[in-house]
């Protein structure tokens, strides 16, 4: 019998890779789509005819109940959120509603309509924030350093609460930074790859950056969505850190990207205080041993390969 899955945030980076994965496994895929004046379908344009879209919004409980009824899902993947840390400082209330309360709305819709469905919540390494131990694992205490991180902590714990209170199969993937050519242009990795391509093609003269010393654990989004799927195939719901176990500075990211096109980054990068966060997260490094051992999950794309993939994709796009 064909499995059915409902994905919120299906037009985003993770949603598009996850939809591809599930379709390749024979799933019937439903995508929750929030109405916008201009539909953003770039990431899923190549598979949009294979997806059944349902209009809805994480802040509209009735629309979520309707979406669960229509899709009758075996699996629900809640990936939708206000997901940009910088914007969360400008729109803290909206971030709290979508990224925090929205999780409760989705869980409640599943509980009311299809409580036996398996639920995945997209948690984030930003929950660790000002880290109290390195590397960070599932039991590391949270210390978020942004409204986004705080909202993600709420979403994480409400998922745990529904699992323990209602005996629902609800789990969270604590994903460290994961990137791809489908990453939004406002994120630092894509900001760098796009700028490098523009500078190489003579369309831009400089790249203005914030803190070059900040360290992140960067992986490939296509690898990470496999971990999401694996979490919902286990006998028992649980939470998992998904990471590479390696850390790289923003400066390393910039250096790999520029050198890939034969340029010296120091000739083009300007540090601008405007891009430094009010409260910086200096070091994120995940311990994914549990996911490796219990899920059998493994990385396929390394850091340098990922950065070069993104630069090549932006070069190709801009050359057209």
From TrEMBL:
The keyword Calcium does not apply. Keywords: Lyase, NADP. Residues 6-310 form the NAD(P)-binding domain. Its cofactor is NADP(+). Its EC number is 4.2.1.47. One of its GO terms (molecular function) is GDP-mannose 4,6-dehydratase activity. InterPro entries: GDP_Man_deHydtase (IPR006368), NAD(P)-bd_dom (IPR016040), NAD(P)-bd_dom_sf (IPR036291). It comes from the Bacteria. Belongs to the NAD(P)-dependent epimerase/dehydratase family. GDP-mannose 4,6-dehydratase subfamily. NCBIfam families: gmd (TIGR01472). Catalyzes the conversion of GDP-D-mannose to GDP-4-dehydro-6-deoxy-D-mannose. This is GDP-mannose 4,6-dehydratase. It comes from Paenibacillus forsythiae. The lineage of its organism: Bacteria, Bacillati, Bacillota, Bacilli, Bacillales. The gene is gmd.
